Amino acid sequence: MQPESTNGTSGEALAIPMAWLCAEYIADEMLRTGALVENGTLEYRAGRETLALTIYLCDSSDELAGARAVARIEEWLNLTSYGHPWPEWVRERLAAREERERGLGGRPDPDLALARDSWRWLRQTELLAADLGDSEPWHPANPLDMIVDEGEQIWTPAWQMGLPLSHLAIHLF
Fold first, then answer.
1. Residue 147, SS3 per DSSP
2. Is the pLDDT of residue 25 over 70?
3. Residue 36: per-residue pLDDT
4. Mean pLDDT of the chain, nearest integer
5. How far apart are CA 83 and CA 154, in angstroms?
6. Which among 132, 165, 164 has a CA at the least distance from the CA of 148?
7. C-alpha count within 13 angstroms, C-beta hemisphere, residue 121
8. How far apart are CA 102 and CA 112, in angstroms?
9. Dmax of the chain from CA atoms?
């Protein structure tokens, strides 16, 4: 990251995105502990970025994201659960953070910059995944022997793959 200012008022210190780095670390630990997908894959990155974004945006204070991680796990589960309007929630939270940044005199927030980059990657990157169609094979009302043809694949935004991975990783943590 570049120094916040070069006019001498910032002490030439680098702006370190500690809240984002903490959220990303927690997300990485949860995904590695769950061992749902292999490290280094695009699927793993989708899960890590989705979970890190959720952790970071949950904390509206200026504290390090995830500092009270154990107390927030239930909230993370709710936000990543099936049917929750997660993309809308992310857009609302990012907009609120951007508004707060403008209210602080427009001083760039390095955490917010990384969160925006993460959201951009999650929206613009598409991954090849099994086509579940409109069915929900995991729904309790469907028969247990319902077969999904994993050979039928479609391109899906990375966040759509990362969200269930995040949810399962939180459960397994």
1. coil
2. yes
3. 84
4. 80
5. 20
6. 132
7. 17
8. 12
9. 67
Letter for the amino acid at 144? Answer: L
CA distance 170 to 74: 9
φ, ψ at 45 (rounded to 5°) = -60, -40
Evaluate whether 79 touches 86 at the Cβ level (below 8 Å): yes
> Which residue bears the tokens 């995904």?
31
Question: Residues 110-142: pLDDT tens digits?
Answer: 889 999 999 999 999 988 877 665 555 455 555
Q: What is the pLDDT of residue 3?
A: 44
User: Do 169 and 30 meet the contact criterion of CB atoms below 8 Å apart?
Assistant: yes
Token output for 163: 């969200």
The dihedral built from the CA positions of residue 35, 36, 38 and 41, taken in this order, carries a sign that is negative
Sign of CA dihedral 78, 79, 82, 85: positive
**Cα 162 to Cα 44: distance, rounded to the nearest angstrom:** 8
Whether the pTM exceeds 0.90: the reply is no
- Tell me how far apart the alpha carbons of residues 102 and 104 are, in angstroms, rounded to a whole number: 5
Contact 51, 80 (CB under 8 A): yes
